[in-house]
Amino acid sequence: MNIKTGGCTEDCKYCSQSSSYKTQTKSSRLVDIEPVLEAARQAKANGSTRFCMGAAWRDLAGKKSGFEKILKMVSEVRGMGMEVCTTLGMLNADQARRLKEAGLSAYNHNLDTSREFYPSVITSRTYDERLETIQAVRDAGISVCSGGILGLGEEDADRVGLIHEVSRFDEHPESFPVNTLVPIPGTPLEDNKPVPVHTVLRTIATARIVLPKTIIRLAAGRHTFSETEQAMAFMAGANAIFTGERMLTTPCSGWDEDKAMLDRWGLRGLRSFEDQEGVQMTPEGTHVQPETTTEKVQTVAQ
Ligand code: SAM
Ligand code: SF4
């Protein structure tokens, strides 16, 4: 859910929310808590296990009351038994600590592409500033969700560079989103051609091999894939999808369509706080000792 849309001071060339470009995206202020809780309840009722909230900000400087509101959103959604993820731009150690105390499960901060290609896409912040936020998230004990976007005009070497950089984190990220560019009219990348599907599949397969325990999430752009192409992405190693009405600013396949597809391919979603081996975890990340011997649930998505 986009909890604060548009008017972002960063200049990410792919993004409809950057105030550097004239796009259709209308800016909006930070939404109130209740509509967020309602959206989370709907997501949970539709089988989502993690609720992700995004705000189009460079960082939280000068946003004290907004941050307090977001902390309340995090703790209330956690109170529903869902995992909670936020993506609010760059964070400092204290902000990361407070998000952890509020019950945050994961923080999204994508590296997006290789260190070498990054300055061709974003100039308003450096690759190392991105890495500093990821470190602050890690130090606060929050799971890291960091991946990339394909179709920026990058080469294979940049897609390898992104995976290489992520593989060198102290710990591999818990989640690696794979976005494929949805060209937005008004942005500098509006005329970019989509990357061929085999390039997306090879990127997923490489990430699966290099990041064996990381959840690889098909993210923005998935709605442009046929069902067969999505199934091939699962075979290549993707094992999570974003679902719901919309991604932050791009279309998304809806719950019903996704549920029907997953059923056809014999895939099931993990429960909240269940790890990839099907072992139930506590929100703090320790294994729940099963009272009774439960059959080992094989995650078909592997
Ligand atoms: N504002 C936060 C930030 O930039 O970290 C998060 C917003 S959103 C989760 C950021 C990610 O969405 C980008 O890193 C990019 O991978 C993806 N994204 C944004 N615009 C996109 C587009 N037009 N097509 C595909 N992916 C896009
Ligand atoms: Fe801002 Fe995030 Fe969009 Fe970049 S991707 S312009 S940081 S909202």
TrEMBL record:
It holds the Pfam family Radical_SAM. GO terms for cellular component: mitochondrion. Its cofactor is [4Fe-4S] cluster; [2Fe-2S] cluster. Its EC number is 2.8.1.6. One of its GO terms (molecular function) is metal ion binding. The keyword 4Fe-4S applies. Residues 278-302 are annotated as: Disordered. Residues 1-222 form the Radical SAM core domain. Pathway: Cofactor biosynthesis; biotin biosynthesis; biotin from 7,8-diaminononanoate: step 2/2. InterPro entries: Aldolase_TIM, BATS_dom, Biotin_synth/BioAB, Biotin_synthase, Elp3/MiaA/NifB-like_rSAM, rSAM, rSAM_sf. Binds 1 [4Fe-4S] cluster. The cluster is coordinated with 3 cysteines and an exchangeable S-adenosyl-L-methionine. Binds 1 [2Fe-2S] cluster. The cluster is coordinated with 3 cysteines and 1 arginine. Residues 289-302 have a biased composition (Polar residues). GO terms for biological process: biotin biosynthetic process. [2Fe-2S] cluster binds at residues 52, 85, 145, 217. Keywords: 2Fe-2S, 4Fe-4S, Biotin biosynthesis, Iron, Iron-sulfur, Metal-binding, S-adenosyl-L-methionine, Transferase. The keyword Translocase does not apply. [4Fe-4S] cluster binds at residues 8, 12, 15. PROSITE patterns: RADICAL_SAM (PS51918). NCBIfam families: bioB. Belongs to the radical SAM superfamily. Biotin synthase family. This is biotin synthase. The lineage of its organism: Eukaryota, Fungi, Dikarya, Basidiomycota, Agaricomycotina.
